[in-house]
Amino acid sequence: MVPAEYYLLLSAAMFCIGLFGILTRRNALLFLMSVELMLNAASINLVAFSLQWGNLTGQVFTLFLMALAAAEVAIGIGIILVLYRNFADIDVTKPTTMRW
Fold first, then answer.
1. Residue 36 and residue 1: Cα distance in Å, rounded?
2. What is the pLDDT of residues 45-60, one digit of tens each?
3. pTM for the complete prediction?
4. Domain boundaries of the chain, sorted by first residue
């Protein structure tokens, strides 16, 4: 059986990679993929703690988190399509004209 610490280290590494992607990328698709990576890291954390403590609460929360991630992707793709239509690019620094 794999110890829970390995899952937590994997989760921390995935979260750090996702955070690095959010802080350094300008492409909206890569930004969205980084957010999904961070959500998956949280899911791994929940499942690891559920495994360690022997109850199913973490796995149930993971199912809710997967539904949240699917909704977030649907909204994110819609926003990316609007960005591409209006600016012919998916660079997140371009739409500064949409501010007040």
1. 28
2. 999 999 889 899 999 9
3. 0.84
4. 4-88
Q: 33: how many CB neighbours lie within 10 A of its CB? A: 17
AA identity, residue 2: V
On the question of pLDDT at 9 being above 90, the answer is: yes
Q: Is the distance from CB of 79 to CB of 88 less than 8 angstroms?
A: no
Task: Quote the tokens at residue 20.
Answer: 């690095």
4-88: which CATH number, 3.40.50.620, 1.10.287.3510, 1.10.132.30, 1.10.760.10? 1.10.287.3510
Distance CA 71, CA 41 (A): 17
Q: Which long-range contacts does 42-49 make (Cβ < 8 Å, 24+ apart)?
A: 42/11, 42/15, 44/7, 44/10, 44/11, 44/14, 45/7, 45/8, 45/11, 47/7, 48/4, 48/7, 48/8, 48/11, 49/4
- 49 vs 97, higher pLDDT: 49
